[in-house]
Specification:
Length: 275
């Protein structure tokens, strides 16, 4: 039987997965046997062991109980989740790198895929200063942004649809030079043949169909994935029946937002300092 080689040194998630596999092997259990004892699927166990899925608090607690490891896995799971990324986001990023279509809705900040290095650095520096993340986690976050942006250059090019709440443009991050360069980046991005950039203005009011940041992927097999997050929690949804209503809401948002031409005009006015 072919088994994927694990590299526990590559990340906290990978280290957790390697330890789970080792503990399972020591007991002579298959993935399906551990899954049955824990109340999960064998596919879920495989995804955690190979680092494709982060362990949730519930998963770690049950694993400790089934494997008789006290609170060791629960503590290791906390370390995994203490990094700069919310639960579900690493898996989302892996799918994003292969998606045929990417749809984003962001509130308050320019989304990572469109951030300039200086904007990303200024945003991260503020988060570190508040004590929300460590400097090391900030470096990890900035590196991930660069990695995600690099995947947009693949062939065939993905279609990228972006709706920015007006607050993304109005909130200053860094100094005026940082913001001017960021606006220029948005204009260059909007000019690409595979992108659409729209602004959801404050005047939309109650017509706004979404209020929190949302990310939607259409994979090459036309399956759908959504990722939504609040300040402290992320949720990845893979079941198409649950993603479809969110996709409908996104289309409604696009219909009510400014056209790309009007959005580009607004960004240009802000870049020139006339708004």
């Amino acid at each position: 039987m072919n088994r994927k080689e694990l590299k526990p040194e590559s990340s906290p998630v990978a280290a957790f997965g390697e330890r789970l596999r080792r503990l399972r092997d020591e007991r002579g259990w298959t993935q399906d046997e551990l899954a049955e004892r824990m109340g999960y699927s064998g596919t879920h166990i495989s995804a955690v062991e190979t680092g494709r899925r982060s362990p949730t608090p519930r998963f770690s607690t049950i694993a400790d109980k089934v494997l008789g490891t006290g609170d060791q896995l629960e503590r290791q799971g906390r370390a995994v989740r203490s990094d700069a990324l919310l639960e579900g986001f690493p898996e989302f990023v892996a799918h994003e790198a292969k998606a045929a279509e990417i749809r984003l809705y962001e509130v308050g900040v320019i989304p990572g895929l469109l951030q300039t290095p200086d904007y990303a650095a200024a945003l991260t520096a503020g988060t570190v200063k508040r004590g929300a993340i460590t400097p090391e986690q900030g470096d990890e976050r900035n590196a991930l942004i660069a990695q995600r942006q690099a995947t947009l250059d693949r062939i065939p090019l993905p279609l990228v649809f972006v709706v920015l709440d007006e607050s993304c443009l109005r909130r200053p991050i860094g100094d005026s030079a940082v913001m001017e360069a960021q606006f220029t980046r948005l204009l260059e991005f909007a000019d690409l043949p595979n992108t659409v950039v729209q602004v959801a203005p404050f005047t939309m009011g109650a017509r706004r169909s979404l209020s929190l940041p949302l990310y939607l992927l259409t994979l090459s097999d036309r399956s759908l994935i959504s990722y939504a997050e609040s300040a402290h929690q992320g949720h990845l949804e893979r079941e198409t029946p649950f993603v479809l209503p969110v996709l409908t809401a996104y289309h409604q948002l696009q219909a009510e937002a400014l056209s790309q031409a009007a959005s580009v005009a607004m960004i240009n006015r802000l870049r020139k300092g006339s708004l």
